Amino acid sequence: MQLGQAVFLRLQGIVSWFGMVSVPMADPQLYLFGGTSPWITPSINWTAVDDRVRGGSSQSYLALVPNSTHVCFSGTLDTKTLGGAGFASQTTTGDKVWDLSAYDGIQVEVIKGQEKIYTLIVKDEVPQSKRDDGREISSVSWEYDFKIAESSVGSGQTVKVWVPWSEFKATYRGREKKDAEPLKKAEIRRFSLMMRSFFEKQEGYFELVLVSISAARKEIVGCEL
């Protein structure tokens, strides 16, 4: 081979340039729900985890919007029953594990929403054993609060909420857990959407229409709230 001659070797999608091996990178955006990936599948569903588990009266729902690929996260947040506290949430079920270590964070795309504070939650562990009532035992959650301005959505336009991994805050049973182990981004096991009262700062009916939730790298990020 003459010096300076370029040699390409293509083998199972791996390209070698002068003996240096380059492994193809992951797509810059991976749709987890919505987009090219359905919100609900035979192996992945969403279920309510509301303050009723603690004697409250809040309710939440997540349902497909007719004639679209969007979903509506909605419900009623009650703050009276538990003396100012209250929460309503939807969480994924099943044994799916997402390896998102190749991405820089999570992007939520919204097309309609009330001007309230919502919470996106991920978990990297789900205890195998369950409580006597069948519910999952509490474990560390990684949370991010975001607010949608009603004036920013509507008329078919969407808003993209970008959440770098570093912005997720570790909590345990609603309290910040500063000594938590780092989030295992290669072992994400749960996604949740939550509406909480923040001790009577918000209550009543809520509604958030989502286009998608995706893992993404920084170069494709759109608007940031």
Please provide a brief summary of the model:
With about 220 residues, this protein is mainly beta. Helices cover about 0% and strands about 40% of the residues.
- Uncertain runs are 1-23
- Helix/sheet category: mainly beta
Give the ordered list of helices and strands: EEEEEEEEEEEEEEEE
Number of helical elements: 0
Helical fraction: under 10%
Structure description:
The radius of gyration is 21 Å and the shape is globular. With 225 residues, it is mainly beta. The model is unreliable at 1-23 (pLDDT under 50). The protein is built from no helices and 16 strands. The strands form three sheets. It has a seven-stranded antiparallel sheet, with no helix packed on it. Strands 4, 6, 7, 9, 12 and 16 form a six-stranded antiparallel sheet that branches. Strands 1-2-3 form a three-stranded antiparallel sheet, with no helix packed on it.
Q: In terms of topology, how is this protein built?
A:
Layout: E1 8-11, E2 14-17, E3 20-22, E4 29-34, E5 46-48, E6 59-64, E7 71-77, E8 87-92, E9 105-113, E10 117-123, E11 141-147, E12 159-164, E13 169-172, E14 175-176, E15 190-196, E16 204-216
Antiparallel strand pairs: 1-2, 2-3, 4-16, 5-8, 6-7, 7-16, 8-15, 9-12, 9-16, 10-11, 10-15, 11-13, 13-14
